[in-house]
Hints:
With 325 residues, this protein is an alpha+beta fold. The protein has two domains: 12-67; 81-323, Cathepsin B, Chain A. Helices cover 33% and strands 13% of the residues. It has seven helices and nine strands; from the N terminus they run ααβαβαααβαββββββ. Strands 1, 2, 3, 4, 5, 6, 7, 8 and 9 form a nine-stranded mixed sheet that branches. The chain starts with a helix and ends with a strand. GO terms for molecular function: cysteine-type peptidase activity. Residues 1-17 form the signal peptide. Belongs to the peptidase C1 family.
Amino acid sequence: MKLLIVIFTVIIPTIYCLSDQEEWQQFKTQHGKTYRSLLEEKRRFDIFKSNIRMIDEHNQRFNNGEETFEMRMNQFGDISQEEFRQMMSLQENQIPDRGDNFALFEDNEELPKEVDWRAKGAVTTVKDQSLCGACWAFSAVGAIEGVIFLKNGILESLSVQNLIDCAGAAYDNEGCDGGLRTNAFNYVINRGVLTDKEYPYTSYTGKEGKCKKQGGVKISGYKDIPEGDEQALAKAIALIGPVSVGVDASHMQFYSTGVITKKSGCKNELGDLHHGVLVVAYSEEYWVIKNSWGSSWGEEGYFRLKRNDGNTCGVATRASYPTLD
C-alpha cells in the first residue's frame, strides 16, 4: 500500500505538467508564437501557467455567481497583467481643455430602450490591431464609417493605416505608440481618410510606415459628450450613430462573455483611460462595444459594459463623434 501511495504522488504532478505543456504547445501553434531564446520561452511559459490558474479561479467564481463575466485563454496568454496594461496606448490624459465643443440634446428627448447599429448595417467587421498600439485610430475610423453610412447608405472599411502613417507628429499622434481619437478626427477634417482597400493595414508587427498618400472622405468636425454623462452618450448613439470612446481596459485581458461592472476593478478617471473603442449599441442594462483585438477575442470581438452604474470603466468620460455637413 505504501508503494502505491508513493507512485501515485509521483505520477500526478507529472501528468499535470504534461497538461500545461500540451496547452502551451496548442497556444503557440494557434497564435503563431515564437521566442528569441529558450530562456525567454521559459519566462513566457511561466506567465502562461499563471494566467491559466487566474482564469480558472475567476471562472470558478463566475460559476458560483460571484463574477459578472467569464474569461478564456486568448492571444494575450503569454504576457503578464502589467505588460498588458502597458500595451494600452491611448493618451487621453494629454487631452487639452475641451472648451465648449459639447453635443447638445433636448432634455425631453425620448430614447428607444435598445439601439444596435450592427443590425442596421452601420458597423464594419471587427479588426485586429495586433502589436500596433493604434486603438485611437481604430476607434476614430469606426465612428467615421458609421456617420458616413448613415448619411450616404454606403458602408466601407476606412484605412486605419492611413491615420497611423500620416496623422503623426503634426497632429500630436505617435503611430503605433499611441495617439488621440480627436486628433485623428482633426486629421480627417483637414486631409481626409482613404479606404482600407486603397491603403491596407500593415502594422501587425507594431511599426508604422511612411505616409504613402493622402486624400479620401472628409468629416466637417466632431462633438464631445459631456464628461461622465451616460444619458448624453445614449442620446448620441440613438440619434447620431456609433460613438468613439476611451475606456479603462486593464482588466479585460481574458474577457470572454458577460457584462463587465465596476466590480472588475476598472476605473473611470481621465488618467485611467488607455484604450480607444467604439460603442455601437445599448440596452437598458449595458453598452455593446466594438474592440480591435480580433473577432476571436470576447464576444466575437465585442464586449459589454454595465450601463448607468457610475460610468463603468470610464465609457462616458471621454466620448466623441464625428459630424458631416
